[in-house]
User: Fold these one by one.
Assistant:
Number 1:
Amino acid sequence: MDPQLPSEPWRTWLEAGARRFLLFARDQTRSEADARDVLQEALFESWRRHGHAPPPEALVFATIRRRAIDLARREQRRERRELAAPEWFGTQSEEPGLDAELEHAVKALPPHLREVVVLKIWSALTFQQIADTLGMPLNTAASRYRYALEHLRESLKELRP
């Protein structure tokens, strides 16, 4: 038997409890994706700790809850760091309200453009590093950055005198 595949008792146990576990994970998190991630982490942790025998369901529910709390804390820390980032880098503008407008414009970018902007500006990565990080060609990273800047200029042009 392949050690990577769950044993028959695990498969039977998962089939019986998967929906209840996912429902609980959804209740503990902000999104479907977060719920699935938390559930996967909890099931993996349970499998790692208990090996061949499925754990008691109450223990899995407790693990899901802990993983959801950990995720929420990570998100809160990330949000605090992002809010503090302009202070750290001295990039706050002198015009009141412009920072909020810029943040809104960046958040409104399509995700594939936003991630390049964040990595280039706030992480100070080169286009080669961005391409390696995101698994894309160098020219794609550079062109996405250029398109993102065009989007930002367009969305912010009414703020300029």
Note: Residues 8-80 form one domain.
Number 2:
Amino acid sequence: MTPARPPAGAPETRGAPLSDERGDGPTPPEDGGRVRPRRIGVLVAVAAAALAADIVSKIVVVATLTDGDTVRMLGGLLTLRQTRNSGAAFSIGTGYTFIFTIIALGVVVAIVRTARNLRSVPWALCLGLLLGGALGNLVDRVLRAPGLFKGHVVDWIELPHWPVFNLADSAICCGGVLAVLLAARGLQVDGTRVSDGKRDGSDEKEGAA
């Protein structure tokens, strides 16, 4: 059957377009035409792995090494030595334990807030390392002697001409280096890239009607 045509002189009506061709408003980050999924699961997995490795290693060290005991490995390239650190990573700021505890709490809160817009796997790895490392040392500061929020962090890895550190410190350093590399490449937390001061995939189409 031929569809009925409107009476002569009557204005034609068209249905609403399926897509907005004007390009008004910001476009969400897309990958192959699809909105990028959030990568919170990757962040949580990496943070949990870093935290678990740090806690287990410290438990083993405290149980097997007393203060002053050393275990030399790889011809002296690596030494296992238990020390207690009241400062930040690599024994920086010794004596300011409470201040570094507050800073660690702030870092954790900042990472959790940033995770709401996390759609990049590399940034999920980066933030996961930072979060796991911060939580690892924070557990020591909260639970270990000499007191609540004043606990000394267990350090046990010693390299030649380098301060004693632990796996949490390593995770924080690796996450920090990765953050610098990602920022230098223009990769954003939401998965977009910055090119000439603009975010790829989020600019309005030029010349749109």
Note: The longest strand covers residues 78-85.
Number 3:
Amino acid sequence: MSRLVYSATLALFSLGSTLAYSYGSSQSQLAELALEKVLTDASPIFGVYQDGKKPTSTWMKNYPDDTPIVHMNIPGVHDTQTWNYSLATQQALDHITALDGEQMFPPEFFRCQEKPIISMLNDGIRAFDLRYAFDITNSTLVFYHSQALQSETATLEDVLFGYYQWLDDHPSEAVFVSLMYEGSTAIHAQNDAAVQHELVRTLTTDAAMKYLNPVKDHLGTLGAARGKITLFRRFDLDQLPASYTAEMPGLHFSPSNWTDNDPHIELVYNTKEHLTAYIEDFYDTNAPIGSPASLSIHWKYNATTANFLRAAHATGAKKDSLFWSFCSSEYTSNIPPETPKIQALGNGTLTPLGGVNQQLIPFFKSMKGKRLGIAMFDFYDQPSDLVQTFLDIQAPSHY
């Protein structure tokens, strides 16, 4: 399908309800088919669409509209797009990744989730970390984790339509999407003007303008964010005129200010109002080579809970600040390697206390009524009560 026809199809969907009244049922049917096509293309990353009826699919409706988002506990997922990156996926994409010129590691090094985005949404996840770059033809934005291509077909635009449809079905909910350009995808790949132009185009279509929260450089109330995607911009538009950055909604977390592998990042995202995010992103423990996984898990747990405690006990101006903690980690350079799954869930009898996720359960139970902020999990669905326990910390009612 040509880009012109594809764009027209997407436009037809976004105007579908208008067309139905103006031109009759055939146009309405075409709009539905166009949406079905887009969601099918998105499914390797988004999953097969289903309208969730679980209590966790509408947990935000229990909070009043005037609730400040920075005072909420919001569960999220790290490297969202990796859920389907199995050995079979890697082998199916070998003919493409072989052209990238990068060494491939086992899929366990890259995989951080096991359930699709649609399940994440229905399970209560509201913050999503997505990593994009150009495909091998340098024309389409697709998803990677380092050099690991996640899908040959699902584009960023396709996946955003999945979120749009879900928000139509769940208007009480607010979604937060962190977008970051993924480096090291191919030898000659770069975040050049072409990549940035395509990103801007994707985020300024009629559909995107309808569903992206227009807020800029601050987080407001839940009521203003309902039914919308609030964009966390972990990207720069430094190859484009400054007007592009000035007009882009959301919060800007410049990669140049996001220090690498840091347990205590203080990142100013609004210089005029001196608004600061307090971020924990200690993802590679770099413990002594040969040390047991339990040591790396312990170090990671300590770094994450320290930021949670900073959020819970913040005073003064910090009380109204954004706190953002990544519960995710890996140490694949250790011997033997500690994959994201081992860090999150442990390694059987070798880690008797479990992984970071298991150890967070009693910590969350001890923090009743506290604000911890945004928590980004690996393998969020294990243990099965992890997300619910996190939500119950300050939930106005058990849903």
Note: The chain is about 35% helix and 15% strand.
